Amino acid sequence: KTGCFLIPMFEKLRQREAKAGGGARALILSPTRELAIQTFRFIKQLGRFMDLKTILVLGGDSMDAQFAAVHTLPDIIVATPGRFLHLCVEMDLKLGSVQYCVLDEADRLFEMGFGEQLSDTLKRLPEARQMVLFSATLPKMMVDFAMAGLCQPVLVRLDVESKIPEALALKYVYCRPAERYAALLVLLRETIPRTAQTVIFAGTQHHVELVSLILTKAGIPNSHVYSALDASARKINTAKFTMRKVNVLVVTDIAARGLDIPSLDYVINLHFPGKPKLFIHRVGRCARAGRSGVAYSIFSNDDIAHLIDLHMFLDRPLEVSDRAAIGIPPADILETEHQLVQEYVQHIDLATVFRVSNNAYKQYIVTRPAASASSNKRAKQFKIDELGVLEDFGTADSAELAQEEGRKSGKAKKAKEVKKKKPLKKVSAATSDKAYQETTNSSSSSVDPDAFRNDFLARMKNYRPSTTIFELNPKSNARELLAMAQKREKDEQKIAKHKRKLQETEQEESRKMEADVVEANDGHEARSAKRSKRQRRDEEHFIAYTAKDAVEEDGYAVDSFARQATTAELWVVGDTADGQRMHRQLQKWDRKKKKMVNVENPRAGKIRTEHGVWIAASYKTGRYDKWKDRTKLDERLAAAQAQQEDSDSDAGGDAAGSAAAASAILQKQYPHTHWGRHNAKADLRKLRDMDLKTPEQIVKNRLEKDKKLSREKAARLKNIARKKKALARKKRGKK
């Protein structure tokens, strides 16, 4: 994808043009630091034989170095939107020479709230520039990117039908929310090889920290990256993973943009993504360049609707019985890992992080995009009890296969009984337990202990007692017993109605299956009565109320809160002065403070640019003017030293030595670190001391020197007197 916009850029720019008063001819904007660094690295690799100057502008780096880099008249600028706009405002850049502008991960740029920065930056570009918007997921409607100032846009979409690589296997692991971390440990220890590179996606940065600590406690080397992490730490942790120092990387969605790992083998979604597009961005990092890969997604009851939404978007069937794609971890291993996790989180350095992550998960569920209404309706029919152990955790044991076959045969038998309208025989709990005991005793020799344990746990999970806890060993006149008897008598009709409805549903499904079988066997000769009554659709003239790809395009759409809020708001201004004043003093409900608060002025703390866009006032700080003054001072010092060297070349001695020292200081390069800047300032101070001084300055320096020498002499005499007294006291003590 990166090469798709770099190669045309090289073709357009051809060679370096460093004209006086000119500027950059290509601009590439990326949403994250990692993606910008990756693009910069690819430019160096692909364009190493082209004489093109490229600079990198990132937030968190030294602005003085970036001022100097812009003054080198580069051909290509790779930047993040916030820092680049800061440079534009500080330096008053015009960007009139830009011919080629790229918005990498365009949908993410608009979703992350860079609208104001992009608007002001793009207004500085000439009208004749070429705009290129790139992303792995782009919607068909380019209205979402109207802010980019597109003129006669052309949409190029590749492989919309195959949204994920064919070599990528999607697998889903079901567990309870409390066992999510235990399921993760089971995957890493039982399924994924230790040498395989694995990326784990977590919902928030708090979960990233918690998962990293848990994996460290469990003896699994890992590193973690999230957007709020320090830039140096992000770079170090990412390098650990790419250089294979560790094989597990825990990230958030924002920080993962720009991670280029060609040999990635596994992706684990610890928290299920809220949008299908986000799922594609996550798992798309795996199975690249013809390699195979596996994407595991851990889900619970809260995520079933989003899972159905995802499969509607991918246009793939979701079969609960497919144990190669969806299932649960082995119960005994999961329980063991869950106990270990509970011990870990009780440790002093994990307890606080665990509590914060639980609160963050509640906010994550609330703020996550809601699933569609149809998926929520289908989620209620999702049969969790029929999930078996995922095949990746080992070959399916015979007991579970027998249990599944027994369940299917039981359903078929039940459907036949309903069809014959025979009443169902009620079996008591004691009879069923006795039968189960006989069965297990007879087959104990052929079933291994692990299979028996899994089968027994599955039966316990499906067991539903016929009585409540209030009816255990009751007294004849107990109030709880009478209350439960009345409630059971009251609810019997509703329960019977519900059972009758379930039976009717199963009968309807069985009739449909029989009708389909008959229709498939008989072909066009024997059609069912229901199919003959169905209206025929003229495909040539029929217009559906929704497009065929409506679900796909809804998944690709840019989810911008600002755009949604703009379409939803309605402003009605009063027709009097009082009404207009009240309009300016509007209030809104604060969910945290639980009260109405005044709506803040949206332009408070902002400045208006020359293009009419309101941006943060902190952008205009005057740092560029200070930098220019400082660099001009250095240039004057260099010129003065050069003149002094020319004038005193025949004098030799101290003058020549000072001139040589001055030139050595000016030509020295300092690293962009704290001590590098400190050494540069110290050397500059030495250089300034070489200048000629006025008589007043000479007298002042001599007086300060004499005062310093007298103070040092007095202190030295005082120390000598103190030592003499101590020595005399010591001699008297010996006598």
From TrEMBL:
The biased composition feature labelled Basic and acidic residues covers: 502-528, 680-715
EC annotation from Swiss-Prot or TrEMBL: 3.6.4.13
Compositionally biased region (Basic residues): 409-425, 719-735
The residues covered by the Helicase ATP-binding domain are 1-156
Q: Which InterPro entries does the UniProt entry name for this protein?
A: DBP10_C, DEAD/DEAH_box_helicase_dom, DEAD_box_RNA_helicase, Helicase_ATP-bd, Helicase_C-like, P-loop_NTPase, RNA-helicase_DEAD-box_CS
- The Helicase C-terminal domain is annotated at 187-334
- Fetch the PROSITE patterns from UniProt: DEAD_ATP_HELICASE, HELICASE_ATP_BIND_1, HELICASE_CTER
Q: Which GO terms describe its molecular function?
A: ATP binding; ATP hydrolysis activity; RNA binding; RNA helicase activity
Q: In which domain of life is the source organism classified?
A: Eukaryota
Q: Which UniProt keywords apply?
A: ATP-binding, Helicase, Hydrolase, Nucleotide-binding, RNA-binding
Please note every region of biased composition (Low complexity): 652-664
**Reaction equations catalysed:** ATP + H2O = ADP + phosphate + H(+)
Chain spans, region Disordered: 404-450, 487-538, 639-735
SUPFAM superfamilies in UniProt = P-loop containing nucleoside triphosphate hydrolases
**GO CC annotations, alphabetized:** cytosol; nucleolus
Residue ranges with Polar residues bias:
437-447
* Family stated for the protein in its record: Belongs to the DEAD box helicase family. DDX54/DBP10 subfamily.
Q: Which PANTHER family match?
A: ATP-DEPENDENT RNA HELICASE RHLE-RELATED, RNA HELICASE
Full protein name: RNA helicase
